C-alpha cells in the first residue's frame, strides 16, 4: 500500500516542490501506526535553508490537504534537505558539489580524492593530484563529498574556475598548476 500511495502522491508533491523553486531529491511514504509518514527531501543549486524548508513544508502540506482523497488517512509530513553523506548520483549533485572535495570510487581502479570543477551532463571536470581530468559519471561506482575543516587552496579554486571559463587550453592544465 505505501508504494502504491507513494506513486500517486509523488506527482502532487513534485509539483508543489517545483512550484516553490526547488528540486524533489527523494520522496517516500511509510506506514507509521495509523498514520502515513510522508518524507520529502528537497534540494537546489543554492542549497536549502531552514526558512525555505519551512516554506516548502507549508506548500507541500497545502497540496496534500487539497488532495486528501488520495491519502485517505492522517499523515505526518517530514521535509528535509539531503545530508552531506548523500552519494553523488546525478549530474545536479555534482554541480552542487562544485569546489568541494569528493572521494570517488571508480567502477574500475583505486579510489581517489579530487576537487570538483565544472559538471556537465555526462562527466565532471575534477582536480586530482594537481591535474585536471574528466570523470564520467558512468564510470563511478560511488562518490561522496568529503568534509573539510579548512578553506581549500585558492590556487586550486582559481584553476578550476579558469578551466570552467575556458581560460585554460586543452593540455595546459598541468602546466598552469605546476607554475603556480
TrEMBL record:
Required for maturation of 30S ribosomal subunits. It is found in: Cytoplasm. Coiled coil: none annotated. It comes from Amycolatopsis rifamycinica. This is Ribosome maturation factor RimP. PROSITE patterns: IG_MHC (PS00290). GO terms for biological process: ribosomal small subunit assembly; translation. Keywords: Cytoplasm, Ribosome biogenesis. InterPro entries: Ig/MHC_CS, Ribosome_maturation_RimP, RimP_N, RimP_N_sf. Pfam families: RimP_N. Its main location: cytoplasm. HAMAP family: RimP. Belongs to the RimP family. Residues 12-85 form the Ribosome maturation factor RimP N-terminal domain. One of its GO terms (cellular component) is cytosol. NCBIfam families: PRK00092.2-2. PANTHER family: RIBOSOME MATURATION FACTOR RIMP. The keyword Cytoplasm applies.
Amino acid at each position: 500500500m505505501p508504494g502504491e500511495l507513494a506513486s500517486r502522491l509523488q506527482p502532487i508533491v513534485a509539483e508543489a516542490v517545483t512550484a516553490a523553486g526547488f528540486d524533489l531529491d527523494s520522496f517516500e511514504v511509510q506506514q507509521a501506526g495509523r498514520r502515513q509518514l510522508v518524507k520529502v527531501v528537497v534540494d537546489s543549486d543554492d542549497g536549502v535553508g531552514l526558512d525555505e524548508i519551512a516554506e516548502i513544508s507549508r506548500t507541500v502540506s497545502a497540496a496534500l490537504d487539497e488532495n486528501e482523497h488520495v491519502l485517505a488517512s492522517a499523515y505526518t509530513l517530514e521535509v528535509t534537505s539531503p545530508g552531506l553523506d548523500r552519494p553523488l548520483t546525478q549530474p545536479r549533485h555534482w554541480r552542487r558539489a562544485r569546489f568541494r572535495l569528493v572521494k570517488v570510487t571508480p567502477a574500475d581502479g583505486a579510489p581517489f580524492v579530487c576537487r570538483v570543477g565544472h559538471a556537465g551532463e555526462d562527466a565532471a571536470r575534477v582536480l586530482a593530484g594537481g591535474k585536471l581530468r574528466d570523470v564520467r559519471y558512468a564510470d563511478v561506482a560511488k562518490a561522496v563529498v568529503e568534509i573539510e575543516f579548512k578553506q581549500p587552496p585558492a590556487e586550486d579554486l582559481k584553476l578550476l574556475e579558469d578551466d570552467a571559463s575556458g581560460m585554460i587550453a586543452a593540455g595546459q592544465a598541468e602546466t598552469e598548476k605546476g607554475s603556480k
